Amino acid sequence: MPARSTTRRLSLLRRWARAIGHRLTVRHQRSPNRTGTRHHVGVPQHPVTRRSAEALAALIRAGWNVHHPPYGYTTMTVGEAAASRRGNPRTRLTPDPRRALVVQAIFYWRAVTGLSVERITARLDADPDRYPPPGTHTSWPPTGVTAILTNLKYTGYQAVGTRDEHGALRPAEHWVLSDLPAHRALITPALFWAAQSPATSVRRIPHRLLTPDHDHTTGHNREETP
Fold this sequence. Notes:
Elements: H1 2-40, H2 50-61, E1 73-77, E2 91-95, H3 97-111, H4 117-125, H5 142-149, E3 159-160, E4 176-177, H6 189-194
Antiparallel strand pairs: 1-2, 3-4
InterPro entries: DNA_bind_recomb_sf, DNA_bind_recombinase_dom
GO molecular function: DNA binding; DNA strand exchange activity
Pfam families: Recombinase
């Protein structure tokens, strides 16, 4: 009898353990949904005050660089440039002589020869000395090529808010651009739009960058392969 009683108790304990484990598993699976629901109703993960957003927009409209320079550019101080609140001098973008040519080649391959992002990536990786990868990468990631092709700063304007979290162009009403060209352009606006996905309708994006008056040339012949 004692042996049977012990066996029965062990059996009950195993059932309770399985039941508790099942409940914990279900609870763990439900928690991300509850978190996602809170995020869905509009609770910001990284709130930015309206005042700081307006200050950032003012710097962009004035043509100052406020982020890490994109591939193909470096930064420089301009004369008696105004300093930030931390005392650092304001900077503007200036072309990186070696990498600026790579940016122009990428846009040419995409807009003129019609190469896909994958084929452009393969061509860049085939000659890393001529086309150095971005940052600390040892090879070109396709996302790096896409980031270049969708960056409006290469048209000579400072810009923020032009792309969503997936790297796609946002509607023009979300953009903040400099009032005037802020640095030397590596490509023309016409070449930029020609390099975009065919799903992007230029006619649906009313913006001054689409007007002929702002189609600044870069001094490079588009008919020649970089």
